[in-house]
Amino acid sequence: MIGEEKESTLVLGTITGYKAWNFPNGLAQYSDVDKLPWGDYSILRSCQGNVRWKVHKTTAHCLNQYKRGKGKFTHSHSEAPHPKCSCGIYAFYHPYDVLQSFHLSTSIFGAFTGWGNTILGTKGFRIQYAKICALVSSVYITPSVINHIAGYYKVPVFNNYNDLLIKFPKTDLGNLIT
Ligand SMILES: [Zn+2]
User: What CA–CA distance (Å, rounded) separates 128 from 77?
Assistant: First the structure.
């Protein structure tokens, strides 16, 4: 997906991205907060890389380096996203693409504010820093569970992406995306 995209690099103020977070083994079995495996899974994790998301700021690190052979490193661990790599915190520009790429029964959907070094692709971007700003509820998740997670991150919950977009609209990138 990322490898097929045409990318350009720039530094922005902030940008709103739409994303899904993985929930261990799907959402159906967690009918209420007391059923959650909070010990090790108390916070949201990326669908790729299983990276834990922090409350105030999640920082991109390159996970690809560990897979590469000696002498093939193109950049340092903390230098993410890097133009010659696929690392960085990825998000879509539009919620439609999140809904196309992930299923509501296994993921929690939402939005984040991103900043720092940014690499723009055609459908989404890779960025250095991110903070979750809103979550979306669905028929697959019990209200008490999504409210509990939202409380942890101190963010609002919306019934769907249309409602979320009113408060957290797409960032206007003008002609930057080709
Ligand atoms: Zn990298």
Answer: 12
How much distance in Å is there from the Cα of 156 to the middle of ligand 1? Answer: 32
| Ligand 1 midpoint to CA 75 (Å) | 7
Best CA proximity match to 109, nearest among 47, 38, 42: 47
pLDDT at position 112 is 97
Those residues of the chain that have pLDDT short of 50 are 1
Residue 3, φ and ψ in degrees, nearest 5: -65, -25
Q: Give me the pLDDT at residue 72, please.
A: 59
Q: Are 47 and 107 in contact (CB under 8 A)?
A: yes
Q: How many CB atoms lie within 10 A of CB 145?
A: 21
Q: How far is the CA of 87 from the centre of ligand 1 (A)?
A: 4
